[in-house]
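hey team, just a heads up i'm posting the complex here instead of the shared drive bc the drive is being weird again. everything in one block, sequence lines first with there labels, then the predicted structure for the whole assembly after. its two chains so it's a bit long, scroll down
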Amino acid sequence: MPIEADTLNINGRIFHSRLLVGTGKYRDMEETRLAIEASGAEIITVAIRRTNIGQNPGEANLLDTLPADKYTYLPNTAGCYSAEDAVRTCRLARELLDDHTLVKLEVLGDEKTLFPHVTETLKAAQTLVDEGFEVMVYTNDDPIIARELEQIGCVAVMPLAAPIGSGLGIRNPYNILEIIENANVPVIVDAGVGTASDAAVAMELGCDGVLMNTAIAAAQNPVLMASAMKKAIEAGREAFLAGRMPRKRYASASSPIDGTFF
Amino acid sequence: MQITVNGEPMETPDNITAAELIRRLDLENERLAMEINEQIAPRSRHDQIVIQPGDKVEIVRAIGGG
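-- predicted structure starts here --
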């Protein structure tokens, strides 16, 4: 398969980059813009928060810095601990972004781990799908729950690699593999990636994409890390498509034995 | 009358509309979404929506996040 034809299809929306990035934790708006440009990402997550009233007039606006003609916004429900708050957030996002229906659902269960609250996530997913949202859902690396979320009608299932912001890499590759093998919608590893090799591992497993924020934003040089992540995603994807050689316990010479003169 | 905007109490003239509130807060050029008592107040109707005493108004925007 030529790599040019290898696209990411999320509910009929076609993307050429398989790297999805967050827009949080950057030093300033300019660093955000440069890092996201270097990542080559087409889908960017944004958070929905209260407008500062009477403060920071003339402050640079994220939506102007990262314009809609260049990026597909993925408003998230970060910080929500109940289905109700997550649904409210998505409705506000749809209003804010002019009937935009693609959302990242995340309902958290615990402040220490930021692990998904699975039962609230299922409830919110059902409501949002019923209301016409296209739900990309952050979830545990649990194949059974991933299947349930797909059955509800989520357009992408996004299991964590490790806790949000931890940078620990894929802790449970066999669960991720199981989720990928069962899924009929894109599987995107969301959260826990720390460096380029972690992203490549996710792609080599057969993930359709990786969503990350802290791994880029908290690097010493975020713009350079964004570029590294872009390459890692592409390398991992090509390696997956190429099909790796089998692992063997013992050596196998690369040079022929025939024709040796010693 | 008193209303609550983004969690803070606020005095406004009676019968203020959503659009007037936004102008009063100097937010008319901002990308925002409004909720009144947890119900979306659609932008297309801001001129007609009249805010009632005690209403809880939320005005939100998009910011960086993961």
